[in-house]
């Protein structure tokens, strides 16, 4: 049987793949249940949802590997993860790849920002020298045990330098051995189109909301040549807004009765988790 990493390679060699982003394993199961062929593990989602902190590199490699590992092991579809700046220099990047591979991930993206990093769609970022990022990519490629584990080089140069330098950096990262390129925060459909014309490597597009990039459809990006399209925070944002509305209603009315039809039922949750309560001797209180 093909490994999950090999399956992702096969998928993107044949067509484009949509990867909804998730912060936890339960939501990853929903992605799989909805019929998607792969899932993306958002660094912002893990930081926001698990630790309640912003996406500025506050989670450690150990925490990310554990959280992402829960997600990867909960689903049969391939999972790639945001590895921020690789958690340090080239040697740290090598360890990052080994730990993520051991945790069951099929790939990760590493960005060329200085630490502490910032969200790719916010101002105030700094990026490392090209040579430093090239060294990280080479270390990542050399460290993986499975040659199908995907090393995705992300560049944030568009917001710091300019579009032409973004292409130049991507070409250097390609030459260093990256398996795919992730140009963060491109600012128009034309930039997505022109970037794809210049880089002969699988490309990842980020369709995050409220950022610098236009919200192009999966179909549009596939036609432009992008092989992976992530929607990193969409499901989380929808869930958070709905949760906030419910809590305000509960505070006001003191009952959840009017929200029952909006809830996932106990049975639906058990089906999502592949759990049969009749096979258990008892259920703990509070379920």
How does this structure look, described?
The protein is α/β, with parallel strands linked by helices. Helix content is 46%, strand content 12%.
Question: What descriptive keywords fit this protein?
Answer:
287 residues, TIM Barrel, 2 domains, 8 strands
Secondary-structure blueprint:
Elements: H1 4-14, E1 17-22, H2 25-33, E2 39-41, H3 43-51, H4 61-74, E3 79-82, H5 90-102, E4 107-111, H6 130-143, E5 150-155, H7 157-160, H8 163-175, E6 180-183, H9 189-198, E7 204-206, H10 218-224, E8 228-231, H11 234-253, H12 266-272
Parallel strand pairs: 1-2, 1-8, 2-3, 3-4, 4-5, 5-6, 7-8
Order of helices and strands: HEHEHHEHEHEHHEHEHEHH
The biggest sheet amounts to:
8 strands, parallel
Kindly report how far apart the N and C termini lie. Answer: 37 Å
- The CATH architecture designation of the largest domain is Alpha-Beta Barrel
Could you list the spans in which at least 5 consecutive residues all have pLDDT below 50? Answer: none
Q: How are strands sequenced across the largest beta sheet? A: 6-5-4-3-2-1-8-7
Radius of gyration: 20 Å
Strand content: 5-15%
- Overall form: globular
* CATH level 1 class label of the largest domain: Alpha Beta
């Amino acid at each position: 049987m093909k490994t999950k990493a090999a399956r992702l390679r096969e998928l993107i060699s044949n067509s484009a793949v949509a990867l909804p982003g998730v912060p936890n394993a339960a939501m990853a199961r929903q992605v799989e249940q909805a019929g998607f062929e792969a899932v993306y593990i958002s660094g912002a989602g893990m930081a926001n949802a698990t630790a309640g902190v912003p996406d500025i590199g506050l989670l450690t490699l150990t925490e990310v590997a554990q959280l992402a590992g829960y997600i990867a092991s909960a689903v049969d579809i391939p999972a790639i993860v945001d590895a921020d700046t690789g958690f340090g220099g080239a040697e740290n990047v090598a360890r990052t790849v080994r730990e993520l591979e051991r945790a069951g991930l099929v790939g990760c993206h590493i960005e060329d920002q200085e630490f502490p990093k910032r969200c790719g769609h916010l101002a105030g970022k700094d990026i490392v020298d090209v040579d430093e990022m090239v060294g990280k990519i080479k270390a990542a490629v050399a460290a993986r045990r499975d040659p199908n584990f995907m090393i995705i080089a992300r560049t944030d140069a568009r917001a710091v330098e300019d579009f032409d330098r973004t292409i130049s950096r991507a070409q250097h990262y390609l030459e260093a051995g990256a398996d795919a390129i992730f140009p963060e925060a491109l600012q128009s459909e034309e930039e997505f189109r022109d970037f794809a014309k210049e880089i002969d490597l699988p490309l990842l597009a980020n369709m995050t909301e409220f950022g610098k990039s236009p919200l192009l459809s999966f179909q549009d990006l596939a036609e432009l040549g992008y092989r992976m399209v992530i929607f990193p925070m969409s499901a989380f944002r929808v869930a958070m807004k709905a949760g906030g509305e419910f809590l305000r209603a509960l505070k006001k009315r003191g009952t959840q009765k009017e929200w029952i039809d909006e809830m996932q039922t106990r049975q639906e949750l058990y089906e999502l988790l592949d759990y049969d309560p009749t096979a258990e001797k008892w259920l703990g209180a509070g379920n």
